[in-house]
Design brief:
By secondary structure, chain A is of the alpha/beta class. Chain A has 2 domains: 67-331, 3-Layer(aba) Sandwich (Aspartate Aminotransferase, domain 2); 337-439, Aspartate Aminotransferase, domain 1, CATH 3.90.1150. Chain A contains 13 helices and 15 strands. Chain A has helices spanning 2-5, 35-46, 67-73, 76-79, 91-108, 120-135, 149-160, 180-187, 209-218, 306-309, 322-358, 384-393, 423-450; strands spanning 53-54, 112-113, 140-144, 165-169, 194-199, 222-227, 248-252, 268-272, 284-289, 295-300, 365-366, 375-379, 396-397, 400-401, 412-416. Chain B has 129 residues and is α+β, with helices and mostly antiparallel strands. Chain B has a single domain (8-108), classed as OB fold (Dihydrolipoamide Acetyltransferase, E2P). Helix content of chain B is 21%, strand content 33%. Chain B is built from 4 helices and 9 strands, in the order E-E-E-H-E-E-E-E-E-H-H-E-H. Chain B has helices spanning 30-36, 82-86, 90-93, 117-127; strands at residues 8-9, 14-18, 24-28, 39-43, 50-51, 56-62, 66-70, 75-80, 101-105. A 6-stranded antiparallel β-sheet of chain B has the order 1-2-3-9-8-5. Chain B has a 3-stranded antiparallel β-sheet with strand order 4-6-7. In chain B, strand 6 (56-62) and strand 7 form a beta hairpin. The longest helix of chain B has 11 residues, at 117-127. Chain B is globular, with a radius of gyration of 13 Å. Classes of the chains: A alpha/beta (451), B alpha+beta (129). At the A-B interface, loops of A face loops of B.
Chain lengths: 451, 129
């Protein structure tokens, strides 16, 4: 090919770029490998993947994905399809997105959805930007401390440069909930554009969403619901919160058919009230009829997107998580609303069971009295980090150590039991934790002697 | 291309009509609506808002574009044409009857800085590509 175009090497094609602007070769990368060599390399690396009995939640959850989901979604038509830029020619893709949007409006109880965003944390940031645009005067947003710490950091990174101030609201140390009084204290008497209301919050605790929604709307602020999509199959959806319903709902769609993988890719969902739709970022699929009256699908409201509106666009996003959304749509279609509600109930029941087994152990207590969905915080008699290491040596991922992000909670561990666990799994965790907590002192003495 | 001689115009394709009561009504020209295509949405300025000449004050959206409208003169927004906001296609059907908002000018001398019909026709001719 190089000969055909009269170039001597690939590098020659980049001649126009001044040498001082060229990046050096990446450090630590291997030279090119052929298919056999790369297969060996990948097999070797895959062999080092662990296989854990996992009680780790904290934003990404292990759920059973019916085999049919990825069988369908790995079909070439779904798997290799990119974001259509001549969208009307991709009616199949648009139909799937339309079905996805329809399911998400049903799940959130809100009027319109977009075709997805990158993932939950940036979806939260987009919701904040949207609320500020829609509010038109205030640029302050109240965010509970009980919202996922990584998501709060991502949101701050994204909105900070637009002069938007995030105000942290405290959680109740006894219940783990966020109260209207806490939101009010955070707002410090000034105008706010929005309040973020999680359900469930990062501690797994169920928030008093009706009171929080009514408080925010009485203050003239928009309510950004930050919801777990599986929980919404069982609990009151954001569109029904308070007397008027939440204004915007976002979250991470990973629990709907995306494997945990290496932490991604997942997808962010966003839904809103009908009158806010023009402020909503992302692609939106609409149903319409063509010139001959035949039904079809289009990408609509595109004038708000960056390829048309440029610097005044609602966002610079011009794509969506097509493959993950396809998986979520098939997953939701297979489970249906009843199936998803059953999954939610099974998660809740398993976590209740796990908690009762673990709190039967000496020194292990629930940190909060509030009702939880499918994860909760436990207080241990000792720092969580060495306990988790010892559990890992037994093939168990015991949960998330909260010492880094919530030092005020002491020796705290966030544990989660989804529907994928059975009684044997819960028993095994309890047994191992009991053993580790009993033997803890002796083990550390032995280790120091052997050095 | 029609350019009513009794109206004034801006380089940004707004027309301005001096009303008998001293206010001015504002809309977009035939050329502008032709370039935009089918208008689907109008976001007018809020009544009561004070504008300076040249301020971005409204957005008009068509199937293929979203364009800003600029205040042709400084003043206070005293009315918005709800009928046109509700039926944006009126802008395509009769652009010079479809006024979008009404201003009470705070500096009437600014009206003299606007283009007349001939001046606007030159601008529009250059704009066509």
């Amino acid at each position: 090919m190089l000969a055909t175009i009269g170039a001597r090497s690939i590098d020659e094609l980049f001649d126009e770029i001044p040498p001082e602007l060229r990046a050096p070769p990446l450090a630590d990368t291997l030279p090119a490998l052929n298919e056999m060599e790369i297969t060996r390399l990948m097999r070797d690396r895959a062999g080092r993947d662990g296989s854990w009995l996992s009680f780790l939640g904290a934003g990404a959850y292990e759920h059973h994905i019916p085999a049919a989901v990825w069988q369908i979604v790995t079909r070439g038509e779904f798997y290799s399809a990119y974001t259509p830029y001549q969208p009307e020619a991709s009616q199949g893709t648009l139909q799937l997105l339309y079905e996805y949007q329809t399911m998400m409006t049903s799940l959130t109880g809100l009027a319109v959805t977009n075709a997805s965003l990158y993932e939950g944390a940036s979806a939260l940031a987009e919701a904040m930007l949207m609320a500020v645009r829609a509010h038109r005067s205030a640029r302050r947003i109240v965010v509970p401390r009980a919202v996922h710490p990584a998501w709060r950091r991502v949101a701050r990174t994204i909105v900070r440069n637009q002069g938007i101030e995030l105000l942290e609201a405290a959680y109740d140390r006894e219940t783990g909930q966020t109260t209207p009084a806490a939101l009010e204290a955070a707002a410090r008497g000034g105008d706010i554009a929005a309040a973020v209301v999680p359900q469930a919050n990062f501690f797994g605790v169920l928030e008093p969403v009706d009171e929080l929604t009514d408080w925010a709307q009485a203050r003239g602020a928009h309510v950004i619901a930050l919801a777990n999509p599986v929980a919404m199959a069982l609990l009151k959806p954001p569109g029904e919160w308070g007397s008027k319903g939440a204004d915007i709902a976002v979250g991470d769609g990973q629990p709907l058919g995306a494997p945990l993988a290496g932490g991604g890719p997942y997808f962010g969902f966003m839904a809103c009230r009908k009158d806010l739709v023009r402020q909503m970022p992302g692609r939106i699929v609409g149903a319409t009829t063509d010139g001959e009256g035949r039904p079809g699908f289009v990408l609509t409201l595109q004038a708000r997107e960056q390829h048309i509106r440029r610097s005044k666009a609602t966002s610079n996003i011009c794509t969506n998580q097509g493959l993950l959304v396809a998986a979520a749509t098939v997953h939701m279609a297979l489970l249906g609303p009843e199936g998803l509600a059953r999954v939610a109930r099974a998660c809740h029941a398993n976590t209740l069971d796990l908690v009762s087994r673990l709190t039967a152990l000496a020194g292990v207590r629930r940190a909060f009295s509030g009702t939880f969905f499918h994860e909760t915080v436990l207080r241990l008699p000792r720092p969580a980090a060495p306990v988790l290491r010892a559990l890992k040596a037994q093939g168990i991922l015991g949960g998330l150590d909260l010492a880094g992000d919530y030092p005020e909670l002491g020796h705290a561990l966030l544990v989660c039991a989804t529907e994928t666990k059975d009684a044997g799994d819960l028993a095994r965790y309890a047994e191992q934790l009991a053993r580790i907590l009993r033997k803890g002192t002796r083990r550390s003495t032995r280790a120091s002697r052997s050095r | 291309m029609t350019t009513p001689k009794e109206l004034k115009y801006t380089k940004s394709h707004e027309w301005v009509k001096a009303e008998p009561d001293g206010t001015v009504t504002v809309g977009i020209t035939f050329h502008a609506q032709e370039q935009l295509g089918d208008v689907v949405f109008i976001q007018p300025p809020e009544v009561g808002r004070r504008l300076k000449q040249g301020d971005e004050c409204a957005v008009i959206e068509s199937v293929k574009a979203a364009a800003d409208l600029y205040a042709p003169v400084s003043g206070e927004v005293v009315a918005v044409n709800q009928e046109v906001s509700d039926k944006p296609e009126r802008v395509n059907q009769d652009p010079y009857a479809a006024w979008m908002f009404r201003l009470k000018p705070s500096a009437p001398a600014e009206l003299e800085t606007l283009l007349d019909a001939a001046g606007y026709e030159k601008v529009a001719a250059e704009d066509k590509h």
